[in-house]
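Q: Two folds, back to back.
A: First:
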Amino acid sequence: MPKLNLSNYDTTHFLDEMLDENGQIRSSYTLFRDRIEKMGWKKLNFLQKSTDRAQLSLGMTFNVYSDNQGTERILHLDIIPRIIDGVEWDKLERGLKQRITALNMFVADIYGEQKVLKDKIVPKELIFSSATYLKECIGLKPPKGVWCHISGSDLIKGDDNQFYVLEDNLRCPSGVSYMLENREILKRTFPEIFEKLKVRPVNNYAHNLRDMLESLSPQSEATIAVMTPGAYNSAYFEHAYLAQQIGAELVEGRDLVVQDDCVYMITTKGLKRVHIIYRRVDDDFIDPLIFNPNSLLGTPGLFNAYKKGNVVLVNAPGTGVADDKAVYAYIPRIIKYYLGEEPILENVQTYICDEEADRKYVLENIANLVIKQTDASGGYGMLIGPKSTLKEQEEFKAKIKANPRNYIAQPMINLSRVPTLSEDEIQGRHVDLRPYILFGEDIKITPGALTRVALKKGSIVVNSSQGGGSKDTWVLD
């Protein structure tokens, strides 16, 4: 049986997380590398194909809205895990707790006294022009003062071997089900090495999620529902999976009714009171009486029931204002303003096209920058300057000039690479990291994360809708 040969493994021009700049194996990967070298290609390929079949059998699929073929895909799980040292992870935890604490205070302030605007830490025009700012939420006081109960900030590692926050996701961050199922599959794939490396467990996430949700309601036996847009939503597998894991009801907006400002679920035995809704429906669609009148996904009267304190919505409506990519540029200042601390995790340098000096720089250097639409996600609305054509650059220049508020720019970051199984050899592929944060009576971060990987050689776009895959993330104890 042929041994694994890493002699062709390319580490030039990029930080590699398995090999250092001298081509030496990093200590966190030593045991794993020794194990897979003994396997050979036949065994590795067999394990990879078994993993693909396991994902299909578990229903770990998603839809791509832009794909007119109407087919479901698996989020390809590469069987070579990403391994993170425990000391490095502990720093990430501290940084994420600091960041989500400040962001929660920011959202509360934006819909409250607006001190951060009055003190000119953040321009008020930036907030009031944000598509995700909801004036209907002014004056709201969610249970226990928590707005962003579930979040998933995206992190990248650059050439300096440091993690940076790329963006924040405070509305309906997805992917946690893949993190949990990836772990179950990899534990069966590499049981011996998993145990020897003392990988920190992630299987308490569902328990922590349930505890967090229950902590928000005064009811001793609260009924929890996961609200989904329906079976055709790209993340429906996750909605159903999480409802099953935490023992919650899986409902659509049409399954709920509001009476006397209380929310009820329609059942075969009559109406049943619902106290907590973990919603996976965007703000604009949760209540057609308040937001989008054409929405068929929400429940009429739901927002008013929430305002009256008769139901808990997780996450709270209005948190999307902190997801705005233009607001992202001010988060270091926000942390300093509310906590009096320097950020533990730094942002990627960001140019705000709505500011004249920044806009001038972006237009003059667009070929070297990554341009992002502030209200887009999933890898859409982007221009990767160094990989774009002159025509594409001119088109984005016109868009920026027409609506500068809608765009930011960042330098091209050489995302770190990790070993990935690719046909007949192991090659480095670019990755990012999405840890999941639960915020209730305290803040809990699962010691693992969804690593998203750009499966196409040379690509830096890791989004599943753009052909990306995933890896299990092993945090060593």
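A: Second:
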Amino acid sequence: MSWDPPSPRVRELIRQGAEIALNARPEWLAEIDAATLAGEARRPIAGDPVLAAATRRTNRSNLLFWAAANVRAPGQPVAANDEAAPLAIARDLVRRGLDDSALDAYRVGEAVAARLWTQIACTLTTDTAELRELLDVSLRSIAAFVDATVASISARMRAERAALTRGTHAERRETVLGLLDGAQVKEPESRLGYPLDRSHTAAVVWTDDPDADPRQLDRAADLLAAAAGPGRPLSVIASAATRWVWVPGRPDPGELRVALERLPLVRVALGSPAPGLDGFRRSHLDALTTQRLLARLTSAQRLASFDEVELVALVTQDPAGADRFVSRTLGDLESAPAEVRAAVRAFVAEQCNASRAAARLFTHRNTLLRRLARADRLLPRPLAGNTVAVAAALEVVHWRG
């Protein structure tokens, strides 16, 4: 990775452009993120909130790494990005069972970054010769940097894959993946230390914070088991920031919610309780659906169950259509104070019984009635004639960020 150094004038232009890239516009980052997460080949990454977030972090890390290097030494070759973000995603890709083809996302990101860099370069000089030299050196630098970084991530993936073939965690994960795929697994209960002939509730326990202590995830898995009562849980390391958990029976959501207050960086998505091996699979898929819903809606909720969000998951499969449905159904109620929307949700949940709804919200019945009257004035159609649609729209508003 070498080339003739650029002239002093072009080195200065590259430095100026790199300083602009260090303070990249949000729309540039959004365009790179969208490109690296688009397409059928990258669906497994885009559909996984942890992998998608790790990809966005890696995009930012790569951009800042290359730009900072060119502020320090404009036009010089840039070594592979050896910071935490690209190394972490290598580990997580392998633990999700993905191969090196997932790294094609960085080639797509390179194309977008090169186009954006060309736009920056064209603002730095009107001299054709300078611009030609600037682009020749810098685009070669970007390509070589991405090549080196992808090679580094690929090597880390090979090492991680080798490590995963050894030890108890590897055997447990391999067994679980076989069961989830419907494969015939020999003596799965003895390999997992977990009985399958009972009712299970699956959970996805994860964190969005790349600096969170992984032990908090294990602690959350223990709290989840405690909220479910007696019986040994099953916990599998799905990635550095994710645990897949199964517990017997049904965890108490109130107890779990209180317990999670001690772990503010951890989030939990629960599946529905279901019996036997089929229930083991189905509850896990429900938990994944719940997690992906929270990510798709950028929800701030830290605990959600499939039972709570199943309707919202169906309604929001088409995000743009869901937004239109909410706006058309709620009108000005969509942007009304939270307590007004909460009054309507509670009223509908209590079968339109004002006394029970007031008790549910710990408020006076007259206060509730005033809020319901205000909601009726804000709605395009009266609540009494459109209860189901209003309730569905309010659930979408409640769960989205």
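Q: And?
A: The longest strand covers residues 199-207.
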